[in-house]
Sequence to fold (446 residues):
Amino acid sequence: MLTLETATTTFTERFAESAKLTEHGKQLIPGGYSRTSFNFGPHAVFVTGGSGAYINTVDGHRLLDFNNNFTVNILGHGAQVITDAITKALPTGTSFGNPVAEEAELASILIERIASVEKVQFSCSASESVMSAARIARAYTGRTKIAKFEGGYHGFTDPVSVSVHTHEADEYGPEDAPLPVADDAGVPQQVVDQVVVLTQNDISGTERLLRLHAADLACVFVELESGAGGHVMLTDEFAHMLRRVTAELGVLLIIDETANLRAAYHGLQSLYGIDADLTVMGKIIGGGLPLGAVGGRADIMSVLENGKVAISGTHHGHRLALIAGIACLRALDQRAYAQLNGHAQRILDELRLWASERRSPFTIFGRGFSSLAYAYCKEPGQQVTTHRDYWHKVDAEKTQAFSLELANRGIFPVARGELSLSLAMTDDDISTFIDTVKAIIVDMES
Ligand SMILES: Cc1ncc(COP(=O)(O)O)c(C=O)c1O
Fold:
């Protein structure tokens, strides 16, 4: 029978070179690498590069990449349109103390796609743009507190490093009035005290807390489909309540589409039929180079031009990232979204049917967008509506065993249970994925 122990043993044997590089890295870099999310069970998997739908590891394996740098690489690796665009620009310099015309070009693409976005400001990452969005919202409203959802991940900065992994805390309060809990040592209590924590899909609790804190509340950060803290999808009813009540109270609704821009050409907010006041973007918009953005209503964004708020980073609006982002988004037309979402829907349909027929607790979450989530649950047929619900229902050990075994058998997911598809994947790649998942589950349940 396949267990966490056997999967770990195989992983350790198959990825021994990666283990060596991790150990070497640890002498120079805390943990061995600069990004804790690289952790994959015992250690990270080091790569030498990638091509199309695949990555090559230092251990000599070619893995079908369902991680895609945590949703970034929507075209796959080494996409010709991006390579050509960067290569053409490279000989004329990489970095300037001047703006380039491509900034307005990428801004116009985002404005054309996302109905609620009238003006855009770029940074180097979504974490930075989340921080900018909080400052813009505070400046615009004159209020200090921010609200976010329990389990909502919006990057690593202080204002939002609150109640992301609350299930690991000793005390996190009742679900209809969660306590704000610092996610990391080093986040000051004064920062935590400025955060109101809400529960996904809890209509009455959320409305009550928003009204209670309205006088001090600048904004609410929300992901319509959350990923990093555990997979939860907001209901239409809940999302519309959030839009209605925040508008009534003058609280800005900030929709974090960093990962969700993958869902639809016009953003996930278009599928819900709601308009954000501000939208945070990242990941795919830089075409594989570091780029973040905040965009939204022109009157709100005007705090950036009337001297009230000055946000200016050395690499903000970096030319190469803009150029790569333009190439990526131009390739991502409606037909590309249809292909990606068609593949995701096939995975959902086939694996859900198969798991329910054999009464397996293995669960695929999602709505057929090109990022899906998976978990080995404690019971078959689980529905998840809140962050706590997710962590109560998921069998963390079996999910980890499954993730490691996927890598052992040639498929690389996000270890905590996420899958990102790329346009480079073929029907055969999707079949390989589905067949591999079934074989692993059979071995885990035999
Ligand atoms: C929803 C969401 N917001 C913000 C971020 C932070 O983005 P970055 O890592 O580019 O700073 C992430 C990253 O995973 C994310 O998923």
About this structure: Residues 70, 125-127, 130, 153-155, 223, 227-228, 256, 258-259, 282, 292 surround pyridoxal-5'-phosphate (CB under 6 Å). The first helix runs from residue 4 to 14. The chain has a mean pLDDT of 96. DSSP finds 16 helices and 16 strands in the chain.
